Batch of 3 targets.
Target 1
Amino acid sequence: MNPIRKDIFAVSLLLLYSVLARSQSHYTGPVIDLHVHVAVLPGERNNLGAPDSITDLLPMLRPNKIARAGIITIAHAGQLAETRRRNDSVLRLCRLYPQLIPICSVHPADSTAAWSEMERLKEQGVSILKLHPSAQHFDVGSPEVAALAERAGALHMALLFDSYKPEDAAELGKLMMLAVNHPDTKFIIAHAGFIHFAELITINVWKKYPWYRNNIFMDISAIAPMMGNSPYRRQLMWVMRSVGISQFLYGTDFPIFTFKESIAAVHRMGFTRAEEKKIFHDNAGRLIASLTGAAK
Ligand SMILES: [Zn+2]
């Protein structure tokens, strides 16, 4: 072999090796995303101007290996008929497209009417409710929220909570205490507390006590694409590994982030393939199974 051909051969081998090494270092199997906002009612528009109808969403799922997508609605206080209409629309979409998981909503201020709606939703197979203190204008520390959290536990429903309100710096702490005070209820803290993520380390202290039931999960929607490639990356990874990768779920917060960019953001953070498999799929699968009783 002449020296030039030899060099080309060596370079090609190196390229092939690096392509193989890259593809093997990341989890590329099915993904479960429990944080997808869609237009729930016909003609509804989000204020981002981003396409988010069900016909926009569905063709994006398979190319991004999204095997299951939890579609979210958010309820507003005192609008019970509208809340039911939106929840029913989510349920209808999920019946039409079985890859979708219903994530319905109630408002804590609707108290007993909200509880009745929760019971109705549970009968229809809903296991996750979305609550958004900022968009729904409530305080996580209020007694109505505690009553709703207790009710959710009795119904085996998890609460997916937005965890960042710029004007309430104590919100993540309030959410974590809500979980401690309602050990039979599972909580998903969306965005993992965002810029307050280091507070999650408190969970490690609670884990030493027999009363802590490991009922707090976090999704890394928004935080992964916004902070996963920043000077906070190592701290965020350290917190996640320290609290336990088994408690963390992938999420997009679609349409704010695309599936492609949020998946790439998690890949870029530097988790092992085994950790990525848990984050992208296994942890959410385990959580859903524990809520629906489908598996242990
Ligand atoms: Zn969201």
Target 2
Amino acid sequence: MQALRVLNLSDDLSGTQLAELPKPERAAGEVLVQVRAASLNFPDLLMTRGKYQLEPELPFTSGLELAGEVVEVGAESAFKVGDKVIGGNKTGAFAEFAAIPERGLSPLPKGMSFEKGAAMGAAYSTGYTGLVELANLKEGQWVLVTGASGGVGLAAIDLAKAMGAKVIAGTGCLSKIDQIQAQANPDKVILTQGQFREEVSQITEGHLCDIVFDPVGGDVFDEATRCVTFSGKLVVVGFTSGRIANIATNIPLIKGFSIVGLRAGEYARRFPERGRAINAAIAKLAEEGCIDPLIDRTLPLWRWHEGFNAMANRELIGKVVFVPGC
Ligand SMILES: NC(=O)c1ccc[n+]([C@@H]2O[C@H](COP(=O)([O-])OP(=O)(O)OC[C@H]3O[C@@H](n4cnc5c(N)ncnc54)[C@H](OP(=O)(O)O)[C@@H]3O)[C@@H](O)[C@H]2O)c1
């Protein structure tokens, strides 16, 4: 089968290539899935460079999330052959077949395409865990989402809007503002360069934001600490800027806000019942038509390089979805 293999770590993808591999063997507790679509996440890019918190042993098959059809199960499995599923296991999704632990899979929401299902999974569970589980999002609250054009950022905007929040989308790219406004429909899109606190204050009529959801870090995080309202929450999601910010602890004390660290996957592993409830809540919102993941482009897997480069060069508004075997 076709699979995208990381053979060596490199900053320019030179250690990653498409290869022919035997179909993976299903171990106990795993389900063999025929991958129909798999979406690219920032950690996939970081893992090709050895710059993610998880460093799989080389060589490994890239890809942390997929949508597909079950082709082989164990006798005790809750799934059956032919079930349509979404999920993943940190690696292995960019291939024609993947053996995934059963707990890493959930049903594809009814009526959803494989492409949309693959695009929804990790981004939406990250958004939901951060906004709802950790920051206790309420209808009518102001939410600032940075890195707004990314998979996780767009998912957070979509979920916050679906739950009746007022959303400010922050992008670092002037050229993306109109498209984010048109496609994601937040209340307002702002440019998160320099000092954007005054604009946030104006938009929220001095209230500032009840929740700031920040996948970017660095300078954006620094300025975002000035955008949280008293008793608000600043959710630390990631560091796409490449810099992990430092913060003096007197800032959250004086301003009376909380900083919350998000690890969506780990949260679901430690609290499996909450993980299942989060997946069910997202599936319900999708089935009711309240949320809809944005896909920037769908590519055959052999054009993986184009997708990875577009993410590295910050050209995307939405997800990249790969279709293996074509
Ligand atoms: N905490 C968790 O549980 C969890 C789970 C999943 C992912 N994550 C993290 O969330 C982050 C986003 O992942 P993703 O898959 O959504 O990535 P993505 O689709 O590439 O989006 C990231 C966004 O960050 C902004 N960005 C990219 N490079 C930047 C740079 N050099 N400087 C400033 N901003 C930059 C861009 O938005 P604009 O151009 O619009 O500014 C980009 O669209 C990653 O750090 C990932 O590791 C965390």
Target 3
Amino acid sequence: MPRKLLPILLTMAAIGHGETIVLRNFTLIDGSGGAAIPKAGMVIVDGRIQAAGPVDQVAAPKDAKVVDLSGKYVMPGIINLHGHLGNVVDLTQDPKNFTRANVEAQLKTYAQYGVTAVLSMGSDQPLIYDLRAAQRKGRPAMARIFTAGKGFTGPAGYPTSAPGMKGVPYEVSSAAEALKAMEELAPKNPDFVKIWVDDHLGKEKKIPTEISAAIIAAAKKKGFRTCAHIFYYADAKALAEKGLYACAHSVRDRDVDDALIQTMKKNGTWQLGTLVRELSTFVFSKPAPFLNDPFFTMSVNKGVRDTLSSDAYLKKQQGDKDLPKYPGFLATAQKNLKKLYDAGVRVGFATDSGPPARFSGFFEHKEMELMAQAGFTPAQIISIFSKNSAEFLGWQKDLGTLEKGHWADLVVLTKNPLADIRNAQSIDSVYIAGNKVR
Ligand SMILES: [Zn+2]
């Protein structure tokens, strides 16, 4: 943002508009990665930022609602590029749960945690398009919906044997079937296309590379970008070579290398971390350390918490014969994410929250902690979940950094997140399109 060019006749801003809000006297962290601006102000007109910068350059229009935020910090809203909406109630996943009420409840939970947009990755039903269309006509008061609609896997492929996942994705056995499914999907105009490419450590059927390649090509022909759930290095590499837009998880079977880095950079393939998804594979095998954290309990009911600490639940987690491998997969994911980022591969922010025991909102903050542990600075994490993630979506003219013209999707904090990313939990209030939603 060209901050030096900011002095603007802001008193003109409100004329002819419905609603003007002025935020004043906060420290602005705009998501660009530049230095924070102390004593900042922001003018929001009909949900969009009209000006942001030093407060003495941001005059309050006469009829504006002025909010004094002395001592507070403002950062961009968190964009989660990998979630799953609507299928879970408490700890049960079932497509029957996919109702307007359940999707909206989850979008409101996200918003309570400062997550202002979520890309739902391939497990949605047609209702999602109606909800998205309604949001895009106006100013949403809950997290913004992006969707990959109905994703793809092979016949009886991963994850169709997971509880509540049968019938959720397309199961295609040939390039011709992939094309046919794409003809059905394309008119709905999903934001992305999703493929699950995994055998779940040899326990499930993985879609063959040539069919995935056919899906990527068919999507591209329709103007869609494809994201793939991957686990193995070999799949990341093979699909990046075929023009994959994003690896929707980290490579976890081995370290990434220069060959993958060069392929991803050459083809513009993005990497999403979803580190907290790995945490979820083992953290509930013992009573989780955050079960009584008020930041967790504010959105997770007592029944669910009791289940998570019950003997039966713990025993079930401990009975997974692959459990000893999971912490290593997290460590590999962390190392690989940082290595790709440092090498210049584009990295967006993502958690895979939404499925059972992957708690929307809370998990986005855990993801930030795991990124910090992997060596990302707070400023990098903030830029990744705002600027980078908006660019991933192709919405960088509307979302991401807190600058003129963008929607006012932002989080007000009482503590400085640049000092410690865990301070992103000190949420005072949340705005989406200028609507105060918390
Ligand atoms: Zn997922």
